[in-house]
Amino acid sequence: MPTVKERLSGGTFKHVEGELYHFHETKKELQQIKNEILHTKADLPNVQRIQHLERVIKAISSVYEELPKEKKRLVKILYWSRPQKYNWEGIASQVPISKRQAQRWRKSIVEDIANRLGWR
What pTM was computed for the model? Predict the structure, then answer.
């Protein structure tokens, strides 16, 4: 992993956030594809898709598991709570930290995931 962090483009940042928002659905999709392969004994329909899903899941999981509990709470509230019922002040108060600190943590977490994926 590079020691100097490059600034993520806005598009990459949003893409990584999209992967975070859909993390649980991605895990289900991967399992569904694997089950279809097992039950139909068909050839691998899309090896690249499986590899992509596994890479994304691994990157998000490894970053998440290394986070302290407060940052894990931020991820759960910000990305995995449905429906999202908090604005930034509400999210920050749930952790509890300042709004600015919550935004800094978000940026750092997204950048760490992007780095693990090699996305710039």
Answer: 0.87
